[in-house]
Design brief:
Helix content is 16%, strand content 31%. It is of the alpha+beta class. It is globular. The N terminus is likely disordered.
Length: 89
C-alpha cells in the first residue's frame, strides 16, 4: 500500500494486541498465524507481523468477533522486543 503524501510503500509492521481474557491456542490459526500468549494478568497478547492497514483492520474485526474486550493495540518498533513483559502491578 502506498502513502499518498510520499508515494512510499508501507512495509509490514509488527503489532501487539492485548485482550481481556484468555484464548485457547487453537485460535492461532484464525488469526493468520499470529502468536497468542496468555498472560498471568488474565489477558491474551496477539502479536506478530501485519502486512498493511487493511490486514490490521481485518485482525481487529476478528478480535471483535471473539467477544473479548480489546485492551490495547500497539505497533512495535523493530528494535523493541516482540513480547513485552507483563507489568507486575
Amino acid at each position: 500500500m502506498s502513502d499518498p503524501s510520499t508515494g512510499h510503500r508501507h512495509e509490514t509492521g509488527r503489532y501487539e494486541v492485548r485482550l481481556k481474557g484468555h484464548l485457547d491456542s487453537r485460535w492461532a490459526a484464525w488469526f493468520d498465524g499470529l502468536s497468542l500468549t496468555n498472560e498471568t494478568d488474565g489477558t491474551t497478547l496477539i502479536h506478530g507481523p501485519v502486512v498493511d492497514q487493511a490486514a490490521l483492520h481485518g485482525l481487529l474485526q476478528r478480535i471483535r468477533d471473539t467477544g473479548l474486550t480489546l485492551v490495547s493495540v500497539n505497533q512495535v518498533e523493530p528494535d523493541q522486543p516482540e513480547v513485552p513483559t507483563t507489568d507486575p502491578r
